[in-house]
Design a protein that fits this description.
heterodimer, A: 431 residues, alpha/beta, D-Maltodextrin-Binding Protein, domain 2, five-stranded mixed sheet, 46% helix, globular, B: 276 residues, mainly alpha, MetI-like fold, 12 helices, 0% strand
């Protein structure tokens, strides 16, 4: 007995000394190296690994390493925590638009307005990473778009054409339904996917009222009282109550929805163009079977795409090695850097740099997006990039609407109320 | 006759509940861990058409430069050290608190209770860790884990101390026992049932902790096992087969511990029951 107690104590002591040793080992690892913090999306991780490798090979002064963080709310909290404890790695990637505004850029980030690459950035991008005229971020990779995925073989079989108006779109969905397929796939199992019929409709709203974003920020219009904006809510009601959606839409997940689409069980799926990465990884042989078009509105003349701008790459004002950080960003927006990233994960939409083209081997669905970008006035950044007002509960409200608990009018009114709280928290004028 | 039938129904129900609660989730994990990415994306309970056990295993281990190996090591050190610290410190506090009545007892009790109630604040905690140079170090996180677990442990130890007769301490002191020896050789062995409870509860809590390592121990080389799950799971894309394989792998260490110490755990609990 006595012996066993002795060994227990000795064991505890040995354990404590091991802790002390490993503590020293892991504590001193930050010298000489520069860290780039990115979110943990698998495609992003692969692309970043190659980008860092290419950068480290291209020069001899700095050695970069990658660190990952979760996305979503947890990622937001982590970014804010690390900024306020002055523990942010020297370069990091984070959302542009309203989430960017929430991390107090003027106080926490380094002003990059005088960087040489700024003049090459497409006109649409800088406002989403600027505060009072100063630019704080560089575009991280290609853009993303919201719209409708469709199954090409189904379209050929039924002799359908890519719709330019909402009514044509519904007619196509009806035709697919009569052919025994899901007209429109919805996947409320991943709640955020419920929002695309509303969020991706913003190009159509802005086509009718170009000042919508400004008026919305100033509380002059809302989704319930603007007839064009309200249509998106009616659309959700129409497709779910009209029986055009898959029967299990309440519990379907994103992965299942994309499997329906790639396998041709469903004809349409409203989602990001970045869904291509998942289709490619999971259904590699079906990549050319899917196409992508902008969410159609009422007027075929103004048909166009709602674009999600890429994340920004930022440098915190507390960065220890600013020269390394700026050199890295310059490389990340160069044709060479973008090519390195594309080798790991292909871009999900055109780049935000005027002099860099998409690689030639991207799937047709993504390459076709360039047409929208090349047409004047056929792209609009999503509302969340031009207005800081975005309510946190849109997905929940749309699920209530989509499952028939409330009607379109109530849903739009509830969303306007939801937004009100958030706008008041931001301290905007007019709320 | 009648009561026999009833017992059988109860047994059957228990079995059913057991299957639903324990076997089905485990089956889901194992089943999906051996599937290909395409099949696992459907997220159902059908049998896999082809087995990818070795590939998935390799991929999970090799991901991000063998992060899982580092993470298993870190988590083991973290769990062993934090639980050891909690047991020793909390047992000492419980011992003193129960044996020696003094004026600060009320204050200490209030502090223990506060430890249970007051929610942890991340940013100020990081400031404190930074100012003493322990931020981003394993010892720093160990101290954080001990802090968050200690209130609960003190309550357990204090309650159990009252069942240990004071005469034992007195006899030991008369025999010439010093305070440290009294605690480690007389009292701590008698607290074994509580020690076992604390080890079981806290090691599971620390090993499965996600939030504290995320905020207090950032950096690739500092990963713990729960953070490795995020290698395969992200906002827009999840590799379910690898995710489930990872879950399976990080469930194994606690399982081994329980298999090895099963006898002691049961013995500890029953000895407590008889004495209590």
């Amino acid at each position: 007995m006595l012996f066993s107690r002795r060994t227990f104590l000795a064991g505890a002591g040995a354990g404590a000394s091991v802790v002390a040793i490993t503590g020293c080992g892991s504590g001193g690892g930050s010298g000489g190296e520069v860290t780039f913090l990115v979110d943990n999306d698998p495609n992003n991780v692969v692309a970043t690994e190659l980008l860092i490798e290419a950068f480290n090979d291209s020069q001899a002064d700095y050695v970069f390493t990658m660190e990952t963080r979760p996305g979503g709310t947890e990622g937001d909290n982590l970014i804010k925590t690390r900024l306020s404890t002055q523990d942010m790695p020297d370069v990091f990637s984070y959302n542009s638009g309203s989430l960017f505004q929430a991390i107090r850029p003027a106080q926490n980030l380094l002003d990059l307005s005088d960087q040489p690459w700024v003049s090459r950035v497409a006109e649409v991008y800088p406002p989403s990473v600027s505060v009072e005229g100063a630019i704080y971020g560089a575009p991280h990779g290609g853009s993303n778009s919201g719209g409708i995925w469709y199954h090409k073989p189904t379209y050929e079989e039924l002799g359908l054409e890519v719709p330019l108006t909402w009514d044509d779109f519904i007619a196509n969905a009806e035709a697919a339904k009569s052919a025994g397929k899901h007209g429109i796939i919805q996947s409320y199992g991943d709640t955020y996917t419920s929002q695309f019929l509303v969020l991706a409709d913003f190009h159509n709203v802005a086509a009718v009222n170009p000042d919508f974003a400004e008026q919305y920020t100033a509380n002059e219009v809302g989704f319930a009282d603007d007839p064009t904006a309200f249509k998106a809510f009616e659309h959700v009601e129409q497709v779910t109550q009209g029986g055009l959606v898959n029967e299990d839409y309440v519990s379907t997940t994103l992965e299942q929805a994309l499997a329906y689409l790639a396998g041709g069980e469903g004809a349409h799926y409203p989602f990001f163009s970045s869904g291509m990465a998942e289709i490619k990884a999971t259904h590699a042989d079906k990549v050319e079977d899917v196409g992508f078009f902008a969410l159609p509105g009422d007027d075929p003349e103004t048909n166009g795409l709602t674009v999600w701008l890429p994340n920004g790459i930022y440098i915190p004002s507390t960065a220890e090695n600013q020269d390394a950080a700026t050199a890295f960003i310059e490389f990340a927006v160069s044709a060479e850097g973008l090519a390195a990233m594309a080798e790991g994960a292909q871009p999900t939409g055109p780049y935000m740099l005027t002099d860099v083209e998409l690689p030639e081997d991207v799937p047709t669905a993504i390459a076709d997006l360039q047409t929208y970008f090349d047409t004047d006035g056929a792209t609009t950044p999503a509302l969340e990039f031009s207005s800081p007002v975005k309510g946190p509960n849109l997905e929940n409200i749309l699920i209530e609407l989509g499952t028939g608990s409330i009607d379109a009018r109530t849903a739009a009114e509830r969303y306007d109320q939801d937004v009100e709280k958030q706008a008041q928290q931001l301290g905007l004028e007019g709320w | 006759m009648r009561s026999k039938v009833r017992i059988n129904i109860a047994t059957a129900l228990t079995l059913l509940v057991f299957i639903v609660v324990f076997v089905v989730p485990f089956y889901l994990v194992v089943n999906n861990a051996v599937k290909s990415r395409e099949e696992a994306a459907a997220l159902d309970l059908t049998m896999p058409t082809s087995f990818h056990l070795v590939e998935n295993l390799q991929e999970v281990f090799a991901a991000r430069d063998y992060m899982l190996v580092t993470a298993l090591f870190n988590s083991t050190v973290l769990t062993v050290a934090s639980v050891t610290g909690m047991v020793i410190v909390a047992a000492m506090v419980g011992f003193v608190l129960q044996r020696r009545r003094s004026r600060i007892n009320g204050l200490v009790n209030a502090a223990v209770l506060m430890g249970l109630i007051v929610p942890p604040a991340v940013v100020p905690t990081i400031w404190v860790l930074q100012s003493i140079g322990l931020f981003k170090t394993l010892p720093g996180l160990i101290l954080v884990e001990i802090t968050f677990g200690i209130s609960f442990c003190v309550l357990l130890f204090r309650a159990f101390m009252s069942t240990v007769p004071r005469e034992l301490d007195e006899a030991a002191i008369i025999d010439g026992c010093g305070p440290l020896r009294l605690f480690f050789q007389v009292i701590l062995p008698l607290l074994k049932p509580t020690v076992v409870t604390v080890i079981v509860v806290q090691s599971v809590a620390v090993f499965n902790d996600f939030v504290h390592p995320l905020y207090f121990l950032p950096g690739e080389e500092n990963a713990t096992v729960q953070l490795t799950l995020y290698n395969f799971m992200s906002q827009f894309s999840t590799q379910w087969n690898l995710l489930f394989m990872n879950i399976l792998l990080i469930t194994i260490p606690p399982l081994i511990v329980f298999l090895f110490f099963n006898r002691q755990i049961v013995a500890g609990m029953t000895s407590g029951a008889v004495k209590g």
